[in-house]
Design a protein that fits this description.
There is one protein chain. The protein is mainly beta. The protein is built from two helices and seven strands; from the N terminus they run E-E-E-E-H-E-E-E-H. The protein has one domain: OB fold (Dihydrolipoamide Acetyltransferase, E2P) (Beta Barrel). Belongs to the CcmL/EutN family. CcmL subfamily.
Length: about 100
């Protein structure tokens, strides 16, 4: 899994029928220090994540299984909304502190 920040949504009116009703998010990957990386990814949202939230992303066959159908053409799925991230006794992200 990878940590990422929700940067926006992706809307597509023409897509594979198995993706109908699936919300797609544009994510920017985050490193272990909490810095945004110059890497973006589109992922299916399974948890109702919103703009600027930090999330966990699962990839490949695990992403397809999360949505309950291995036949969907997915490479990534958001599987959790992060509340806090601690690294070596320090907090690099806290959801409650973000919105003060």
């Amino acid at each position: 899994m990878q940590i990422a920040k929700v940067r926006g949504t992706v809307v597509s009116t023409q897509k594979d029928p198995s993706l109908r009703g699936v919300k797609l998010l544009l994510l920017q990957l985050v490193d272990e220090e909490g810095n945004l990386l110059p890497t973006y990814e589109v992922a299916a949202d399974n948890v109702g994540a919103g703009f600027d939230e930090w999330v966990l992303v699962s990839r490949n066959s695990a992403a397809r299984q999360v949505l309950g159908n291995e036949q969907r053409p997915l490479d990534a799925a958001v599987v959790a909304i992060i509340d806090t991230v601690h690294v070596e006794d320090r907090v690099i992200y806290s959801k409650k502190d973000q919105y003060r």
